[in-house]
Amino acid sequence: MNLKGLRKPVGPHSNCSHLARRLWDSRYVSDLEELRDRMRAFTLARDWEKFHDPKSLLLALVGEVGELSELFQWLPADQARELTQTDSLKTRVSEELSDVLLYLVRLADVMDIDLANAARRKMDLSESRFAAENFRGVAPEKK
Ligand SMILES: [Mg+2]
Question: Cα(109) to centroid of ligand 1, in Å?
């Protein structure tokens, strides 16, 4: 396992064991980097960089979110929850979620955004803003 380059824990996770934090970081960051690199290679091999401007990638991402939404369209919420446990819907949902993730990773890459770090910062903010002791079982108010 490569632990090189991992950051010192800060924020709400700073009380986690240092080793647990390192293991979490190394697993997920390397997964996103692997996907980013495979998307780069896939795009280069097909000479598709010219199509991968931020606007086009965003529209592709939204299109995939639409395909994901379509799987649940018109289903009552409790029926949708039950159906997600069936193999056929779970397979389709996993395919569409993957499309969403891949376009998201590619969009972040062409915009030179470190997605794992950006998401980590957002989680730090959310954990501070919605302290568990104040929000357990309570939906945040819309502003
Ligand atoms: Mg799709």
Answer: 20
pLDDT band at 22 (very low <50, low <70, confident <90, very high): low
Structure tokens at 98: 């993957």
Distance of alpha carbon 80 from alpha carbon 40, whole angstroms: 35
Any idea which residue has 């931020």 for tokens? 54
Q: For residue 32, give the 3-state DSSP assignment.
A: helix
C-alpha 24 – ligand 1 centre gap (Å)? 29
Q: pTM of the full predicted structure?
A: 0.76
Token code pair at residue 138? 């309570």
pLDDT in tens, 124-142: 999 999 999 999 999 888 7
Q: How far is the CA of 120 from the centre of ligand 1 (A)?
A: 26
Instruction: Please provide the size of the chain in residues.
Output: 143
How far, in Å, is the centroid of ligand 1 from the Cα of 4? 35
Question: Residue 33 is which amino acid?
Answer: E
Give the distance, in angstroms, between the CA of residue 31 and the centroid of all CA atoms in the same chain: 11
CA of 62 to the centre of ligand 1 (A): 10
Q: Cβ distance 6 to 25 under 8 Å?
A: yes
